Amino acid sequence: MKTIRSKMMLLSILIWIIMALIWLSMSAFNQKTVEQYNQILQRYLLMNQASQQSQQTLTSLNNYRITPTEANLKQYVNDNNMLFHTKSELSWLRNPNNEMQLDNFQNMIESQSEAMDLVVRFQKDNDEDSVAKKFDEASNITKYISETTLTLISGEQKTYDAFYRKIIKRSNDLFRMGFWTLALVSLLLLLFSFRFVNSVTQPILKLTQASRELSRGNFHKPIEISNNDDMAFLARTLDNMRLNIGNLFDEIQSKAQLEYDLHKHKLMLKESELKSLQSQINPHFLFNTLNMLSKEAFLAGADKTSELISSVAGMLRYNLRRMDSRVSLRDEVEVLEEYLTIQKARFDDRMTVIREIDEEALDIEVPILILQPLAENVFIYAIEPSEHGGTLTLRVKQEEDHVIVQVEDTGQGMSLEQIEKLLSEAESSTYKGHSTGIGIRNVLHRLQLFYGVEDIISIESKIGEGTCITLTLPRGKQQ
C-alpha cells in the first residue's frame, strides 16, 4: 500500500537526486575550469616573478656598489639565491612552443648572475673599471630578460587562446544545459504534483461528502474509495464507524448513567470527608487550650512545664500564618528562641547555643519560617546523632547592602553529595516527627522568589568539623 507519506518521500527524493546531479556536474566542470585557469595564471606569475627578481637583484647589487656594507651584500646574496630558485622552477613552464625561448631565458638568468658575482668580486678588489663594465653587462642582460618575459607571456597567450575560447563555449553550453534541465525538471515535477494532488484531493472530497451524510443521520450509505493508500484506510475506518455507531449510542447511554452514579458517589464521599474534618480539633482551639494549660501549670508552680507549653503555643500561633506572609527577621529570631527552648528541654546539657546577633540588622523583612528549618537541620544531622550533643551558633550581622545570617554547628559535617541532596527538590526536613516539614530547598526557593536573587544561600562543611549555612539577604530588594 502506497501511503501519502511514501509519495511525498518519493517526490522529495526525486527532487534531491536531480538537484544533486546538477550540482555535481556543475561543480565538476567549474572545478576543472578553475584548475586549468589557475595553472595558466601561475605560469604568467612565475614568468613575471623571474623578471622582477632579476631587476631586484640588480638593484641590490647597485646598493652594494654605492654602499659596500655587509648588510647590502647579504641582501644581494639573498636576492640572487631567490633568482636562482625561480630559474629552477621555470622548467615547469616548458612546452613544445616555448622550449627554445625558455632555454634562452634561463641562460640569460645564469649569465646575469655570473656577471653580478664578478661585480662583487671586483668591488672587493677595488677594481672600479671592471666593476662598471660587469655592472653594465648585468644591466643589459636584465633588460633582455624583461623583453624575453614579455615575449614568453605573449607566446603563452597565443598557446592558450584556444583554451579561453573553449571555456567560453563550455559556459554557453552549460547555460543551455541548465535551462533545458530546469525546464525538464519543472515539467516532471508539474506532472508528478498534479497526479499526487489529484490522488489526495479526490478521496478527501468523497470523505467530506460521506461525513456530511453521517452528520445528517444517514448511516446506510456505504463509503467506498478505490485508492490503495492512507485515504482508503481512512475510508474503511469511517465505514466501520458508520456500521458500529448504532451500538455506540447504547454504550454511551450506559456509560452516562454509570458516570452519573459515580459522580453521586463522589459527592457522598466528599460530604463524609467534610464531616470527618469537622470532627477534628480546630488548630486555634488547640492554641487557646495550650495557653490555658500554660497558665494552669504556672499557677501550679510548674514553671518549666509552663514555659514549654508557652513555647509550643507560640510556635503553633506563628506556624498558623500563611506561607506567603512577610515577617521581620526579629520575629524569626524570636520564634527560633521558642523552638530552642523546646529542644533545650529535650537535650539539656548536650546542647549549647551561641548567639551573635546585631540588633540593627533585625528590622529587615523576610519570608516566614526560614530560620527554624535551618536549626532543625542542625539538630537532625549534628546534635541528635552525637552522644555528646553539640553546639549551635546563630550569627546575624549587618554589612553595607546585605544582612548575613549564619547557622553553624559542630557536628560530623557533610560531603558534597549530602549537601546536594539537602538542596535537592525532593529533600524535605521532615524527620522523626519533630519538624515543620519545610525543607531547606523550600527555604531557598522562597528566598529567591522573595528577593529576586539566585545566589542567596551557601553551605560550607568539612567532615568531622561541622557545617555552616549562610544566608545573604539583600536590603531593599523584596519583590
From TrEMBL:
<protein>
    <recommendedName>
        <fullName>histidine kinase</fullName>
        <ecNumber>2.7.13.3</ecNumber>
    </recommendedName>
</protein>
<dbReference type="InterPro" id="IPR004358">
    <property type="entry name" value="Sig_transdc_His_kin-like_C"/>
</dbReference>
<dbReference type="Pfam" id="PF02518">
    <property type="entry name" value="HATPase_c"/>
</dbReference>
<dbReference type="GO" id="GO:0000155">
    <property type="term" value="F:phosphorelay sensor kinase activity"/>
</dbReference>
<keyword id="KW-0418">Kinase</keyword>
<dbReference type="InterPro" id="IPR003660">
    <property type="entry name" value="HAMP_dom"/>
</dbReference>
<keyword id="KW-0808">Transferase</keyword>
<dbReference type="InterPro" id="IPR036890">
    <property type="entry name" value="HATPase_C_sf"/>
</dbReference>
<dbReference type="InterPro" id="IPR003594">
    <property type="entry name" value="HATPase_dom"/>
</dbReference>
<dbReference type="InterPro" id="IPR010559">
    <property type="entry name" value="Sig_transdc_His_kin_internal"/>
</dbReference>
<keyword id="KW-0472">Membrane</keyword>
<keyword id="KW-0902">Two-component regulatory system</keyword>
<dbReference type="InterPro" id="IPR005467">
    <property type="entry name" value="His_kinase_dom"/>
</dbReference>
<dbReference type="GO" id="GO:0005524">
    <property type="term" value="F:ATP binding"/>
</dbReference>
<keyword id="KW-0812">Transmembrane</keyword>
<dbReference type="Pfam" id="PF00672">
    <property type="entry name" value="HAMP"/>
</dbReference>
<feature type="domain" description="HAMP">
    <location>
        <begin position="198"/>
        <end position="250"/>
    </location>
</feature>
<feature type="transmembrane region" description="Helical">
    <location>
        <begin position="177"/>
        <end position="197"/>
    </location>
</feature>
<keyword id="KW-0067">ATP-binding</keyword>
<keyword id="KW-1003">Cell membrane</keyword>
<feature type="domain" description="Histidine kinase">
    <location>
        <begin position="302"/>
        <end position="477"/>
    </location>
</feature>
<dbReference type="Pfam" id="PF06580">
    <property type="entry name" value="His_kinase"/>
</dbReference>
<keyword id="KW-0597">Phosphoprotein</keyword>
<keyword id="KW-0547">Nucleotide-binding</keyword>
<dbReference type="GO" id="GO:0005886">
    <property type="term" value="C:plasma membrane"/>
</dbReference>
<keyword id="KW-1133">Transmembrane helix</keyword>
<dbReference type="InterPro" id="IPR050640">
    <property type="entry name" value="Bact_2-comp_sensor_kinase"/>
</dbReference>
